[in-house]
Amino acid sequence: MTKTGLFISFEGIDGAGKSTHIDGLAAAFKAQGRQVTLTREPGGTPLAEKLREMVLHDAMDSLTEALLIFAARRDHLQNVIEPALARGDVVLCDRFTDATFAYQGSGRGFDLYVLEQLESWVQAAPNGLRQPDVTVWFELDPAIAAVRLAGARVPDRFEAQPVTFFQKVSDGYARRAEADAQRFVRLDGAQTREAVWQQLHHNFVQRGWLSALAA
Ligand code: TMP
Fold first, then answer.
1. Is the CB of 158 under 6 A from ligand 1?
2. Lowest CB count within 10 Å: 77, 174, 197, 214, which one?
3. Rounded to whole angstroms, how far apart are CA atoms 185 and 177?
4. Ligand 1 centroid, distance to 125 Cα (angstroms)
5. Whose alpha carbon is nearest atom 18 of ligand 1?
């Protein structure tokens, strides 16, 4: 039988609360006997993790930032994501290209056409453009996210941005979600963690990806 890999990405502004749910889904898929590849962007390979450090901490212009993020993505796709999907794994990826359109495109105001070009080169696949099968978007008011993040850790170049930046990032996610409504699952990040989990789990049960028994 041909195994079918699943590619699921998770998005949202910093502080939207996606991390615990990614771990919960990994455990739920594993409990059903699926192989899970848990990974993140920028990062996921030794080279991409080095690029992540630069992107998060070194000063650079917007084009350099976009190029490094897509370079990291290329390495990650080639060495982790595509092989995992070919094996039939469930790939849970903490952020993917929607983050680039939201943060670099909408947040920084970088040229969307250039991002589209980079996306078309980096994500070229035999059947068209490699995109997640589903993108789970944790939507949260940037003012609430800022309160959650305050004092949590030393902020990186993105976390240090003002609420106005995150409002633009959030608008960028909303535009991506509107343009590709079939792919996006929107969750209200202001709900309790348990309520968000129930909604997410229910969605995956309805798709036939998880069993209804273990929530
Ligand atoms: P993380 O803290 O969720 O791991 O994400 C790292 C930071 O990188 C986060 O602030 C968002 C940012 N980022 C971009 O600006 N563009 C991208 O394409 C990705 C994947 C992340």
1. yes
2. 214
3. 8
4. 23
5. 100
Which superfamily is assigned to 6-208 in CATH? Answer: P-loop containing nucleotide triphosphate hydrolases (3.40.50.300)
Ligand 1 centre to CA of 156 (Å) is: 10
Mean pLDDT of the chain: 95
Residue to substitute in 40, 41, 93, 168 for testing ligand 1 pocket (most ligand atoms within 8 angstroms of CB): 41
> In the structure encoding, which two tokens stand for residue 209, read together?
């990806």
What does the angle CA 157 – CA 163 – CA 168 come to, to the nearest 5 degrees? Answer: 90
**Nearest atom in ligand 1 to 55's CA:** 8
Whole-number Cα distances in Å, 163 to 17, 19, 61, 107, 149? 17, 21, 21, 11, 11
The answer to whether the pTM exceeds 0.90 is yes
